[in-house]
Structure formats: structure tokens, C-alpha cells
Design brief:
Elements (H helix, E strand, L loop, with lengths): L6 H4 L2 H5 L18 H29 L6 H28 L4 H8 L11 H10 L20 H12 L3 H10 L5 E2 L2 E2 H22 L5 H19 L4 H9 L7 H12 L7 H32 L11 H10 L4 H5 L15 H7 L1 E3 L5 E3 L1
Antiparallel strand pairs: 1-2, 3-4
Helix pairs in contact: 3-4, 3-6, 3-8, 4-13, 6-7, 8-12, 9-10, 13-14
Bound molecules: protoporphyrin IX containing FE.
Amino acid sequence: MNPPRTYGDYLALDEILGAQRPASGKGDWQTASHDELLFIVVHQAYELWFKAMIFEIDDVLKILSHGTVAEAQVALVVHRFKRVNEILKLILEQIRVLETMSPLDFLEFRSQLGGYSGFQSYQFRLLEAKLGLRRKDRLTYGDRQYYCDLDEAHQRQLREAESQLNLFDALDAWLSRTPFLEMKGFRFLDAYKEAADKIAAAERAAVDREKGLSEQERQRRLARVAGNAQVFASVTDTKQHEEYRTAGQRRLSYRGMLGALFINLYRDEPILHLPYQLLVGVTEVDENLTLWRYRHAQMVHRMLGRKIGTGGSPGYDYLKETVERHKIFQDFFDLSTLLLPRSELPPLPENFKQSLGFSFDVNDKVTSS
Ligand code: HEM
């Protein structure tokens, strides 16, 4: 193939700029509804950004699929997430451009869209699947499956993505390999349990000390303290953790949860800075995607009120529910429940701290001990 000769050739601009075909009017831009061009361009821009994000996530999956992940590679993953997050912020803002179209302007050509809907965006489904949204966790309406309107080739691609390693599972495996949980003179679980018991005892004592509480109120507060203590106990009690998993309240494996907790608690240690940034990055990806879902649902409410969608869903009511339901990295948010205040954090033994960081040898050369 000859190298492209011009800017336009390189970017295939003739193809891209010739790819806006109106459904309204007589099929040309002289007779089409004015706002339909914006509607198409915004959707196309989204699809390009979906492509770019999938490309970044695929690379992260490749990196994480290796048994061990070197520090430089962790830095690369952090960088990839940063890019995905910037894209997500950008496409969130893009909704404002589309909202310059009024509901009445939209109605001018909406009926021409037939059954077309973002619901059929296979790239969006791919992105969700690669991040780790599982079929069984998806919200469905009626007996319509989220892939039913995709053509066979795209359905196959989606099934393939769903059968391969996704980001959630890849991170779970990576976290499960977190070293340091047990070292000479320090057992993370024992230290954590001791601190958590101390916190629970202090909370119980605070309820006991409080004057003027009715017996009923006292019991209610004590039950809440006991509930908190049970959640803390799940850190040291595998069985309890598994019960949460069976009930669908947790998804991370026990070791994965411990790894994530350790990284969060001891993130001030230099060696844990990057792993911590990685966890922040992926949590932000989920948060930004959730914000997009919410923002899109609000726009749909504004444009359509309570009308059903062109994809046949209940529209706003369906989209609103996906906001929470389709959050993928819930565990990473819930983890904050298990955090201990810095003042209660079991100190790491000195030799352990040294082995986590960098130290200078007698010749003043930097060495990682
Ligand atoms: C006037 C603007 C828009 C309206 C009225 C609208 C309406 C809807 C509705 C009603 C649904 C629910 C499925 C259905 O029954 O059709 C939906 C889903 C969806 N839309 Fe939009 N949409 C708009 C703009 C966009 C844009 C710009 C995108 C970007 C690609 C987009 C992407 C999606 C996606 C990915 C879904 C599936 C969401 C899910 O199932 O979780 N929409 N849209």
C-alpha cells in the first residue's frame, strides 16, 4: 500500500466527512432536520472515543495478564487509566453540546430513527464487558437481552470478550499476589484484628457513656456498632467474606480484598505509591462511567420525558437504574468501610519499612533493599 500523501488521506477524511447520512427529509442535508447533523456527529465522536478507550483497556489487560507485573508496567497501567479518565471526562462534557438541541427540535426527526438506539452500540457493550460487567449482573427489561439487536459478528465479538480475562478479574488476580501481608515479626491480619477490636470496643463504650438515651435507642446503636464490627471481622474471617460474596455483596476474592486493603492502608509507603495510584485510577474510571450514565439518563429524561426509548426500553427509568446497578468496581468503593484511621493503623516493623522503601548504602549509592 502506498503511504498516504496528504493530511486528508492520512485521516481518511473523505470517508469520515462523508459518513453523516440523515434519516430525515429526503436523505440529504438540504431537506433534513437541522439538528440531525449535530445528533449524528456527537454519536460518531462518541464511537471514536469508545474505540480509543477500548484500545487502552486492551493494552492494560495485556500487561496484567502476565504472571508478574514489573513496577514500570504498573506505572504504564496508571498512565493508561489516566488517559481513559480524561476521555471519559471529555465525553461527559459532550452531552452539553447535544443539549443545545431542544426536545422539540429532537422530535422533528426522532420518528425517522426507527429502532436505532445507543442501546445497540456494540463498542459500548465491549467496553463494559472488558471492564468486567458480567451478563448476570446486567439489568434487563422484559425478556430483551442487551445483545439482541446486534448483528451476529458483533455478538460473537462480545461473547469472545466476555469469555476472556476482564479488568476486574485481572486486578483481582494482581491484588491477590500482593506480597508483604505476612513478614517476619508482622502479621497483617493479627495487627488489623487488634486495631478493629479496639475501635469496636471504643464505639461500644461511647454508646454506654452517652446519657439520656432510651433503652431502645441504646440497643439500636449497639446493634449498629455490632454490624460495623461484623464487617471489620470479614477481613480476618474468610467464611464471612465468602458469605458476602455468595450474597452478591462482594466480588473480590479474599486475597484480592486483603491486597487492596493493605495497599490503601499503607499507601504512604513509597513502594505502595504506584499500586495505590492504580487503584485510584480504576476507581475513577468506574466513577466517571457512572457519572456518564447518570448524565445521559438526565439528558434522556429532559429530551423524552417518560416516553419509551427507540430501542424499546422504558427509557429514563431503565437508564436511571443502570447507574448504580452497572457499577463494576463496587468493591473498590466499599473498601473505605474497612479502612482504619491513621492513628489506629498498626505500625509496620522498622525492618519491614526499610524493605519497602529505598535506602542509602555506606557509599551513598541508592539501593533498593
Ligand atoms: C437526544 C439524545 C439521546 C437520547 C434521547 C437517547 C436515548 C436513549 C434511550 C431511551 C436509551 C435506552 C435504550 C432505548 O430504549 O433506546 C439509550 C441508551 C443508550 N444510549 Fe442514548 N440517547 C441519546 C444520546 C446518546 C449519545 C450521544 C450516546 C453516545 C454514544 C448514547 C449512547 C447510549 C448507550 C451506550 C445506551 C445504552 C445504555 C445502557 O444500556 O446501559 N446516547 N439512549
